[in-house]
Amino acid sequence: MNIAIIGCGTMGMIYAHNLGNMPGVQVSGVADLIQERADQAAAVSGAASYTNWEEMLEKERPETVAVCLPTYLHTTFVLSLAQRGLHVICEKPAALTVEDAKEMEAVCSQHGVRLFIGHVVRFFPNYRNALEQVRSGTIGEAKMAHFKRCGSYPQGVDFWYHDRAKSGGIIMDLIIHDIDFACWLFGDVESVYASVTSPDLNGMEYAQVTMKFSSGAIANLTGFWGYAGPFTTQFEISGDGGIIRFDSNQVQSLDLKIASGGSGSEEAVQVPSSPVLHDPYYLEVQHFIECIREGSEPIVSAADACRAIEIALACEQSARTGQPVRMEGMTS
């Protein structure tokens, strides 16, 4: 498959590295307004380097394009690529509004091309393992979950993350990872409640989200930009028969504690993830390419991406008003 990449920042470089090492895939071109970044992506992927994306498309004739641009540019580029008859793999979030995301989905469908949104948490082995444990009933009925995601304040060439009109802010850009996973885990969302601190001069920003599901399950999500330590993710999923815990700073992948049947003691089982050759971003884009080749449905759909945006915006509304927001008509 012939693939091109538009945008050669952090995510673009990850795509360039992974696609450049993927059997059956040729990265024909990479484009970025900054020549140096385009050249770096070209060097790791074996592609031609461009600063004009339209020239790249004309010369390289890709079948699929990976859009690794700032969020506020997603809609314009995805619509243009779809109208050219090209399949699109776009980084998350799909867009800054539900209307834009749904238009992207509709236009891609209208032109007979596929649209995939990179909600990569679904491809992290520890999260997938936890989901499988819950669905298999290992911890009984899952009723409560806590998710935490902390990292340094994002930096970029034009600091577009600093402009909420371009990035969507901490909930839309960071916590949306866990919003999507919580929906995958628990299904229909009934209501959300959120609070967000205003960024300080150093970019530190903190947000807390509570999601209530139709099943009665509750998920608490925490996001923190400005964390001084390494990027950290944590979760705890509690059921009436046990608890699953994960901390990215610990060696083990999952800490699974099963209720012992009333004896008063607990049995802790360390469940390591299977050794993987490739990182989750590789697994994600490989999956999307297989869906194009086979005409199969992806693990994460465009509709899932639209739902995540709708919930993130409801959380923003809650943070502004200080009131819970009901998700009318929300389906899984």
UniProtKB/TrEMBL annotation:
InterPro entries, alphabetized: Gfo/Idh/MocA-like_OxRdtase_C, Gfo/Idh/MocA-like_OxRdtase_N, Gfo/Idh/MocA_Oxidoreductases, NAD(P)-bd_dom_sf
Q: Where is the Gfo/Idh/MocA-like oxidoreductase N-terminal domain?
A: 1-119
Q: Where is the Gfo/Idh/MocA-like oxidoreductase C-terminal domain?
A: 132-326
One Pfam short name: GFO_IDH_MocA_C
Residue ranges the record marks as coiled coil: none
Q: Which family is annotated?
A: Belongs to the Gfo/Idh/MocA family.
Q: What is this protein called?
A: Gfo/Idh/MocA family oxidoreductase
Organism equals Paenibacillus dokdonensis
